[in-house]
């Protein structure tokens, strides 16, 4: 067993951790205290704080996860507002041996204890007991300042004049879809995805042996894409895709966005690009647009989300916008809006809490098969948050 030199009882030490890591005994702290913890680690670790609400529990059998973070090599410091009297600290090693220095201080609670400057470099994370005054929460989310909170724009665009008579997922065009179905079917288990670039100009003709690989491509259209998706475990992932047609090599529950990252002399994708499984379209990048705009969003497995409002701007012959929430394979409509020829522009508060695995998508019910100058833009503002937090 490693020998530790305790600096603060139970929650501080300096020494070398074995592969077993570290778990403190059930430690009593004052309720609503601020724990100020600093860690210096020589290798990557996972740091967890548990609360023990059962006063008769001396072994931690009733512990509940309060905070979790993967800490890379280097330094970590933060404050945590503990609302319970007892906690357990845990460190899980990513390597067999690791040099650790951890110090924890219990600060008394006062009105200034958890405040800092607006431009402080202190990272904002879930359960960190720090107030940043004069910040715009919305703007900070867009700037990706918050580590555990994310601003999601569920964007859908359609500018097709001919849309058929059947409902379709916003962002999926009638022309060019061929045998694909225009309504996206939500899946409950991950499915393998493929890509199709309709135009030969969007097939990367470079070679892997070039330096860097494929830098010798001469096709004028799309050459590389980046795809953001929710994998079969419900985790958000990103993958680079070589422009062409074939199996992508990943399985997914949902595709949030596919966008162009490299192209030839045309500066864009020449033809339509589809990400699909069988006949089910997960994303479509229309010719010349450089990004998909299919209004589909799935809450990752380790998240929950607040569906704040929907912004609608459009012109059509009376198409109906339907906001659909899919829970465990069942659809329910949470909003209907009419787009008319005078031009529709509105903001509507949805204010719904979405749980992990739920899917939001927008479908269009066309008023007629043709409608010149149809243009529909939809954006649903969503705030994505951790499951375990005290905010």
Describe what this molecule looks like in 3D:
With 391 residues, this protein is mostly beta strands. It has three domains: 13-111 and 121-130, Sandwich (Jelly Rolls); 137-174 and 294-391, Jelly Rolls (Sandwich), CATH 2.60.120; 185-293, no CATH class. It has one helix at 137-142; strands at 13-17, 22-23, 27-28, 33-41, 45-51, 64-71, 74-82, 86-93, 98-107, 115-116, 131-132, 150-158, 168-169, 191-197, 222-231, 236-242, 246-263, 273-277, 280-285, 296-298, 303-315, 319-327, 330-339, 344-354, 359-365, 375-386. The radius of gyration is 25 Å and the shape is globular. The two termini are 38 Å apart.
CATH class of the largest domain: Mainly Beta
Q: Which shape, going by the Cα principal axes?
A: globular
Work out the radius of gyration: 25 Å
Largest sheet: 6 strands, antiparallel
Number of helices: 1
Task: From the 3D structure, determine the CATH topology of the largest domain.
Answer: Jelly Rolls
| Relative helix content | under 10%
Please tally the β strands and state the result: 26
Give the terminus-to-terminus CA distance.
38 Å
H/E topology pattern:
EEEEEEEEEEEHEEEEEEEEEEEEEEE
Q: How much of the polypeptide forms β-strand, as a percent range?
A: over 45%
Strand order of the largest sheet: 16-15-17-14-18-19
Number of domains: 3
Q: Per CATH, which architecture of the largest domain?
A: Sandwich
